[in-house]
Amino acid sequence: MADPTSTPTRATVPDSQLAAWRSFLEAHARVIEVLSRELREEADLPLSWYDVLVHLSEAPGDQLRMQELADAVLLSKSGLTRLIDRMQREGLVNRSACPDDRRGTYAQLTTAGRDRLRDAAPTHLRGVRDHFADLFDDDEARQLDALLRRVAEGRTTG
Amino acid sequence: MADPTSTPTRATVPDSQLAAWRSFLEAHARVIEVLSRELREEADLPLSWYDVLVHLSEAPGDQLRMQELADAVLLSKSGLTRLIDRMQREGLVNRSACPDDRRGTYAQLTTAGRDRLRDAAPTHLRGVRDHFADLFDDDEARQLDALLRRVAEGRTTG
Questions:
Q1: Lowest mean pLDDT among A26-30, A68-72, B3-7
Q2: Shortest alpha-carbon distance between residue B44 and chain A (Å)
Q3: Of the candidates B5, B27, B124, which has its C-beta nearest A148's C-beta?
Q4: Domain A14-149's class?
Q5: What confidence tens digit (pLDDT) does each residue in B56-96 have?
Q6: How many CA atoms lie less than 13 Å away from A20 in the CB half-sphere?
Q7: Which overall architecture, per CATH, does domain B15-148 show?
Q8: CB < 8 Å to A128, chain B
């Protein structure tokens, strides 16, 4: 969050940057809310589950160590263990011990998980296009990408 | 979520827009993670609690109907009732019935809640400056704001 507008120290963030910060938070909240609703309504799948399924499907052998998965997902980082418990009960992932690391656990995509991902992908992708990608022409998308890379990588201006 | 890179329908989102989408998600995940960690370490306060405290502090009479609060906060929309339960147990908010709406409930900031917000605000605001605002000059911030407003408002290009 959170909009620091009325805090006593507001003056330390200039207006233009504060407006961008607010838009950034509102844009994320809105697009995630819409994508979540569409995926739930059309594919009966929470967006956080989709996020896990995609990352497992892209990994070698359809599996990742739990820590690797936690680093990869962009939602549900904090509640990942319970999330995987629920997905396992629905048969979408399996867990297994890492053979070369006795403290480690793998999460692995099941066939049912892969089917579920395939069914849900068109809804999700259409949502990304309609509620994000189609709002920008190529130049704008490249601008936006370059600016947001700085935040993603913690780089300073330049 | 979730990067749709490897889904069969990838071709429907052009590369530049897909890169911007990925940067957008990664930027949000990173900045929220860093701000959360700093706020927890320096002010012992979850970022979702800070979000609630800020919105109550900006409301008339330091109170909002639960539904208004759910619309206002940018984190924890889905788990808000339980979040307010926990904050009430720590004395940071009170609940009261709306006098003009027997189905409604207000959440109201307490004095302890206001003190907690005041203590945490400098940490949060420094984080917003260091990990977001300072990465952009004024022109860049205005550009970023204009592009992200489209997403926040669900507008098409132009």
A1: B3-7
A2: 16
A3: B27
A4: mainly alpha
A5: 999 999 999 999 999 888 877 778 999 999 999 999 999 98
A6: 29
A7: Orthogonal Bundle (1.10)
A8: 4, 13, 21
